[in-house]
Amino acid sequence: MSAGNAELAALALDVAREAAALVRDRRRGEVTVAATKSSDVDIVTEADRASEELIRDRLLARRPDDGVLGEEGDDVPSRSGVRWVVDPIDGTVNFLYGLPEYAVSIAAERWTDEGSEVVAGVVVNVARGTEYVGQLGDEHGPAVVTRDGEPIEVRSPADLHLRLLVTGFNYDAGIRQLQATALANLITRVRDVRRLGSCALDLCHVAEGTVDGYFEEGVNLWDYAAGGLIARLAGARFETRPGSGGTLMVVCAPPHGFDDLLDALQTAGFSPESGE
Fold first, then answer.
1. DSSP H stretches of helix in the chain
2. What gap in Å lies between CA 101 and CA 91, rounded to an integer?
3. Residues 6+ positions from 109 with CB-CB distance below 8 Å
4. How far is 140 from 6, CA to CA, in rounded Å?
5. What is the DSSP letter of 189?
6. How many Cβ atoms from other residues are within 10 Å of residue 174's Cβ?
7. What are the residues whose beta carbons fall under 8 Å from the beta carbon of 120, sequence distance 6 or more?
8. CB 186 within 8 A of CB 234
9. Edge-to-edge strands of the sheet including 67-70?
10. At 30, which helix (H) or strand (E)?
11. Residues facing residue 167 across a β-bridge
């Protein structure tokens, strides 16, 4: 019998806890920048690499036929129909500076002839210890979405001008300029906008109702696979669409007023479909 979604979520949580302990221990010492990626501000630390190595080792030891897609390592093809999508430290710059908003993110995808679907996801805030878990329902059990074991849901309806949003900025300087201009257009139409520094945790904040919405251009599957599932299970609407800089933009918010938010983002200039 194949593993149920709850079993995959439980394995992801066990491994994420162990990786979070490793990252927490590395933060007590000197944090070393190992390399840069797309730009000088897009960094990789030794802890990123150690965390991903641990996650890959633990997952494949338990499920050797599964695949792995990770931010820092080579892709491992799946022979089982399950692939793990891993971000060993989401919010690496926060980790470097000691700001307590960085996470281990692990999602499980099931692949069929029709495509893939994320069926389980875990996001652990390393510094605070908060654990977010989501799993789709299947023949083995119901859908579940929790923070530290307690059910969560998105915020209640609010007019656009009363919504608190979170976002992030691209590592490419040209796209950042576009985002800065668009943000200046948006900021007067909403309650406020925060930049917290972790896509996975931003999505979980939408899920738990501590913010009214999240949008960001330039994120990757490992950034949002687990958090996106958690947000959807908590009642959010989640979409990917082109951003103004030509890369993928994620938008996530409660379904009530989602279209108003999309219109505001487009009018402000976050989308090539801008109304400006």
1. 5-27, 46-62, 92-97, 173-186, 199-208, 221-233, 258-268
2. 7
3. 82, 83, 84, 85, 116, 117, 118, 119, 225
4. 8
5. G
6. 10
7. 5, 6, 8, 9, 12, 107, 108, 134, 135, 136, 229
8. no
9. 67-70, 82-90, 103-112, 115-125, 131-135, 144-147, 150-151
10. none
11. 195, 215
Q: How far apart are CA 205 and CA 141, in angstroms?
A: 25
* pLDDT attached to residue 275: 43
Structure tokens at 10: 């439980």
Instruction: For helices 173-186 and 258-268, give the axis angle rounded to 10 degrees.
Output: 120
Say how far apart CA 72 and CA 181 lie, in whole Å: 32
Q: What angle do CA 244, 250, 253 make, to 5 degrees?
A: 120
Distances (CA, A) of 112 to 2, 11, 82, 83, 200: 14, 21, 9, 11, 25
Query: Mean pLDDT of residues grouped by 10 in the chain (276 residues)?
Result: 90 98 88 64 80 97 97 90 97 94 98 91 98 97 97 98 97 93 97 98 98 97 98 98 94 97 97 62
Identify the CA nearest to 85 among candidates 139, 166, 8.
Answer: 8
Amino acid, res. 213: G
**Triad 148, 227, 7: Cα angle to 5°:** 65
Q: Answer yes or no: are the C-beta atoms of 117 and 232 closer than 8 Å.
A: no
Domains and CATH numbers, the chain: 5-151 (3.30.540.10), 160-268 (3.40.190.80)
Q: Do 207 and 200 meet the contact criterion of CB atoms below 8 Å apart?
A: no
Residue found by looking up tokens 């060993």 in the block: 88
264 CB neighbour count, 10 Å cutoff: 22
Counting DSSP H helices and E strands in the chain, the numbers are 7, 14
CA angle 205, 208, 214 (to 5 degrees): 35
